[in-house]
Amino acid sequence: MLIKYRQNLGQNFLKDARALDRIVSVLEIGSKDVVVEIGPGHGELTRRILAQGPKKLVAIEKDGALIDHFLKEFLKNHANLEVVEGDALKELPKVVEGLGGEPYKLIGNIPYYITGHLLRTLGELEHKPSIITLTIQKEVALRLCATPPKMNLLSASVGIWGNGKIIRYISRKSFKPSPKVDSAILKIVPRKELVDPNYYKFIKALFGSPRKTVLNNLKALNLPKEELEKILFSIVLNPKARPQDLTIKEIKRLFILFTHN
């Protein structure tokens, strides 16, 4: 069956069997596990997940043609598979709510263009997965997993709610059609704590101009310079320090102090 690739949906399908096996192995799926898959596409990951015998697999797919031509075949033989048609960014919170607090794991070879929005959605979930494995753009994965002195807005936005780790890289040649960039298998182990929505506004100011000092960037929050310096000194942080030199713990402590001022 010939299926047209829809560029507007960022469709690039991974065909490397070893890479697919490795992605699934990261989740360590057992018979009691519930798994949520984002963007199953041709079902390459879906097939491997079902082979592990999970309690339940919920696959969220936006392209109805792919559901008709690929995923419906899986539905015939797997009572533990549920397919949800729609935009993962909108459907994921609903799917998670439907689990009623039951633990789950999340996996996906996702379109590059939804990466930032998906990570934000995951960070805002009250009931987060116990483990996440995603295939994303290599450059984005490197920025997400950055530590001082290369901290950035992305690493600060994800690091507040989860620990990210790059498992391995995947050549662009392993996809069909081939994207213009290489990819990476990313593993994130979330923490249960909720993220204050104001945190994202705070780090946007903090990393507003990476070459500026923390003190100068945080002036955008409209606090007097003397008050800013007092806060920085209270956590033994040099006002001349730059945002990329801060650890997640320091950023979190800064945010807490600012929210109580």
Automatic annotation (TrEMBL):
It holds the Pfam family RrnaAD. It is found in: Cytoplasm. It is an enzyme of class 2 (transferase). GO terms for cellular component: cytosol. SMART domains: rADc (SM00650). Keywords: Cytoplasm, Methyltransferase, RNA-binding, rRNA processing, S-adenosyl-L-methionine, Transferase. GO terms for molecular function: 16S rRNA (adenine(1518)-N(6)/adenine(1519)-N(6))-dimethyltransferase activity; RNA binding. Its EC number is 2.1.1.182. S-adenosyl-L-methionine binds at residues 12, 14, 39, 61, 87, 109. It catalyses: adenosine(1518)/adenosine(1519) in 16S rRNA + 4 S-adenosyl-L-methionine = N(6)-dimethyladenosine(1518)/N(6)-dimethyladenosine(1519) in 16S rRNA + 4 S-adenosyl-L-homocysteine + 4 H(+). InterPro entries: KsgA/Erm (IPR001737), rRNA_Ade_diMease-like_C (IPR023165), rRNA_Ade_Mease_Trfase_CS (IPR020596), rRNA_Ade_methylase_Trfase_N (IPR020598), rRNA_adenine_dimethylase (IPR011530), SAM-dependent_MTases_sf (IPR029063). Specifically dimethylates two adjacent adenosines (A1518 and A1519) in the loop of a conserved hairpin near the 3'-end of 16S rRNA in the 30S particle. May play a critical role in biogenesis of 30S subunits. Belongs to the class I-like SAM-binding methyltransferase superfamily. rRNA adenine N(6)-methyltransferase family. RsmA subfamily. NCBIfam families: ksgA. This is Ribosomal RNA small subunit methyltransferase A. It comes from Candidatus Colwellbacteria bacterium CG10_big_fil_rev_8_21_14_0_10_42_22.
